[in-house]
């Protein structure tokens, strides 16, 4: 099995792939769209990309791509706990408190904002494309007094020393990754529960449509675990909604509700029914 | 009147301020939080910050700040059409097609993605803090064959020549800005309509709460023009909702609905009733 993932090696996406597909041949892609195009064009068997972070919210690029493009269904969701560590080149361990510049992904820097403000008020901060890319850069430049914020796998892969563990500000940080594939996937790990994702566009000329949609779910006791709006790119105030259901799309009551919602004039895109897996 | 705005001069926020408050003393702030702190601490009479772009979606920093901090009420909303132009230093006009690097804000670069891909495939692209900052940089470096993507006001202020107008990919792009102030503001311009914004946190232990909230509005024919979710930063799946109503919070039916929604166990934060103004 060839698995495209949002790279480089040792990103959190890479951790997601390795935890659920330990035997897959992992192929790193530079961007999320390239990753999704690879599975669409059947260059790989599956693609793994980030969908939502508990602190920063949805990854808009992934959500918009799922809405606007025809992609294979979602076959699995992987939840990875996000632990950020402070790491330097082994030659600079003794002097780590004198770090002059700290590099990482913009989200990781945001997640460690309080730590940086408290401990490294006078150090410069620079964004890089990913936490793994930052770790790689620091490993290649021992002459610079720089540090990276990244995960444990990146420290191991690039031979950096973690001098301060778990420096993120909020303890409950997780990221959800989705796995897209045309064919069913064999997964050894035990799932935590089943769910589905759909995207709904409301008719523009009717007030109260969202309430009607939620009514169609509510009286059938179909539980929603997520409801999120995204702009349609057609003007202010035009949205589509991404909705997660704690049910399979094959359940009879779910099928009836979607049929009715379509009859109300809504567009419904079904992204798939799948299980959640925990990377821990 | 002193108006804090997300600067530097000639940003789209600056255009919003000048169109509705032509006589205000404008004070540029480097970041959105600094702008909001200034009005909270009464260093200025009002603060103007971006809230939502029609293509890129909400400005998460503003939304989260409104939720987590106690700020003065929203007193007005200003909608600015977003037109991006391609501009170079006057010395480089003849050779503008040989531009080697293009600089702008990340959103502006995203909004002109197709144009850049079509016309400047081989030029480098670099992000700067704002469109105005990019224009300023290009104006100070005539020796570089660089171009900026920015608005007309920035071209005038920094003495750049617009060589290609309206290069944005989608024609309907607008940004909403909000004005926060403790005191009522005198506005000469005619408003387009009145609205209100609230933020609702659902009780975590009850399914179907969002449906109940929308029911409370729906049977009273209270129209929602926006409903958006944001993560609460307490774990995956915990959200608050930002809701715009096409009504004043003083209307009797609105007051009843909010009272009932609170009785259901929801937390409701009222951000204010205000009018929309068009910058055109």
TrEMBL record, chains A, B:
UniProt-recorded Gene Ontology molecular function terms: prephenate dehydratase activity
GO CC terms for this protein?
cytoplasm
What reaction does this enzyme carry out catalytically?
A: prephenate + H(+) = 3-phenylpyruvate + CO2 + H2O
Q: Which InterPro entries match?
A: ACT-like_dom_sf (IPR045865), ACT_dom (IPR002912), Chor_mutase/pphenate_deHydtase (IPR008242), Preph_deHydtase (IPR001086), Preph_deHydtase_CS (IPR018528)
Looking at the UniProt record, the site noted as Essential for prephenate dehydratase activity sits at 175
Q: What class of enzyme is it?
A: lyase
Q: What GO biological process, any one, is recorded here?
A: L-phenylalanine biosynthetic process
Q: In which pathway does it act?
A: Amino-acid biosynthesis; L-phenylalanine biosynthesis; phenylpyruvate from prephenate: step 1/1
Q: Does the keyword Ribosomal protein apply?
A: no
Q: Which PANTHER family does the protein's record reference?
A: PREPHENATE DEHYDRATASE P PROTEIN, PREPHENATE DEHYDRATASE-RELATED
Q: What is this protein called?
A: Prephenate dehydratase
The uppermost taxa in this organism's lineage are:
Bacteria, Bacillati, Bacillota, Bacilli, Bacillales
This chain is encoded by the gene named pheA
């Amino acid at each position: 099995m060839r698995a495209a993932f949002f790279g480089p090696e040792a990103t959190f996406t890479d951790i997601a792939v390795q935890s659920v597909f330990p035997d897959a041949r992992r192929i790193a892609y530079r961007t999320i769209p390239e990753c999704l195009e690879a599975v669409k064009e059947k260059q790989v068997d599956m693609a793994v990309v980030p969908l939502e972070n508990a602190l920063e919210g949805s990854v808009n690029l992934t959500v918009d791509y799922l809405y606007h493009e025809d992609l294979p269904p979602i076959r699995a969701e992987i939840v990875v706990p996000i632990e950020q560590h402070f790491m330097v080149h082994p030659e600079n361990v003794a002097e780590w408190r004198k770090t002059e510049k700290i590099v990482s992904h913009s989200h990781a820097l945001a997640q460690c904002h309080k730590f940086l403000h408290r401990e490294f008020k006078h150090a410069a901060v620079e964004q890089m494309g990913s936490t793994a890319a930052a770790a790689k850069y620091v490993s290649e430049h021992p002459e610079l007094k720089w540090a990276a914020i990244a995960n444990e796998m990146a420290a191991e892969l690039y031979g950096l020393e973690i001098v301060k563990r778990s420096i993120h500000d909020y303890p409950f940080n997780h990221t959800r990754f989705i796995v897209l594939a045309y064919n069913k996937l064999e997964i050894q790990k035990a799932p935590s529960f089943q769910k589905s994702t759909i995207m709904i566009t409301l008719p523009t000329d009717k007030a109260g449509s969202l309430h009607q949609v939620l009514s169609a779910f509510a009286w059938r006791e179909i539980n929603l675990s997520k409801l999120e709006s995204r702009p349609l790119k057609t003007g202010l105030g035009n949205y589509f909604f991404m909705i997660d259901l704690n049910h399979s799309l094959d359940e009879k009551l779910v099928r009836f509700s979607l049929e009715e919602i379509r009859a109300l004039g809504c567009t419904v895109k079904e992204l798939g029914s799948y299980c959640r897996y925990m990377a821990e």
